[in-house]
Amino acid sequence: MSRVDEGRWSRWGLLASAFALGGALIVASWANYRGAHRATTALHLGQGRLLEASLRDAVHPRHESTDAEALGAMLDDAVSTQESNGLRYVAVLDRKGRILAATGESASLPLVDPREPGGEDRLGLVRAGSRVRMFLSRPNPGPIVPAPESVSPREARPAGMIIEFDPVIASDVTDQAGRLLIFGLAAAAVMMLVAAVSYGISRRYERAKRRLEHERRLALLGEMSAVLAHEIRNPLASLKGHSQLLAERLPGESPDRRRADRVVLEASRIEALTTDLLDFVRTGPADRRPTAPADVLRAAAEEVDGGGFALDVRQAPEQWLLDGPRLHQALTNLLRNARQASGEGDAPPSARVTTEHGELVMTIRDHGDGLPEGQEDRIFDPFFTTRVSGTGLGLAVARRIVELHGGELTAHNHPEGGAVFRLVFPGDKDEPHGKHPHRG
Asked: Which of 16, 211, 333, 420 could connect to 394 by a Cys-Cys bridge, CB 3.0–4.6 Å?
């Protein structure tokens, strides 16, 4: 595995691990929060049992002779003692479910025992607004009403109780679970955000590193190519000139004439290669001036094959800041490549100019065999070509010109066949974009 592949997999691994941990943290926090809410009934019951234990002595059945006034005083003391634990209301019931004594302020909801009369359940638990109401043991459930002024001593014996309390224990647990949920969500979001940002920074760093390495190789190649091109051009011009003179003096059908023509042809090929090399190593900044993109495209198409392209410039802006001569050269290379890729029976190559999201976009499509699978980006490498007679510099020169504009040149295969080259040029705030597109 290459170093680039190792870096890619390590980035994906860290990103996937961070998202997996963040997801696990979210699930755990949510499960804890839901568990705390599901446990509220048990927490209410536990708090009610604790309060019941503290009230048991005040209303114990042995106090058979206790009158309602004394029983109320004992309940007042019990509520005052347990107020910090959430106790807000206590009512003592006789065997018939009548209220013998009560203290505190009850919730506004009616005192309705939720249990079925005669049932085995010795406890009822209901929500009374923000409070919890607890019905303790009462052997003979019935309507809960105030006791009459005079009852028999046996009937006045306490047999049940109603208490109301604020669910402080459950509230503390659910509040803590809510805070943990918020903390878990925030921690997971921060973890995922940091992982995503780190992944993006790592990718940009890797791209910048590859770009610098690519530029370094291109610079070395450019220096070497420039020296070779300059050293070759002068003797090559002499060789080509003398070969042409020799060919003109030889009979047209003689073997020597064919050999001389072959020398001229090969010399022309080497001359074209040196010209492409010099074009490729040109590193000066683009001289961007207000230019009509549609005019540049038409001129390039006319130079390659007049009338051999389907041009669409209806949505082209009137002007854009461009280096017209260099853009003409890039478009000429791309259109020539599209013309060569299209067969005799294929539809003519098409070219379109438009704007998208404040950027100038030029699209050139041919109807040939398309790009080699997996080599969509390699075709822009210097000296990479799939043709026998090509130099492999035309597309490299085109991409370099687009990049000198601060733009991007990409290529991909069209779903319906053929290759598509896309040139994107950024716009500037002070760029003189035309308000009315071309209609011609």
From this structure: 333
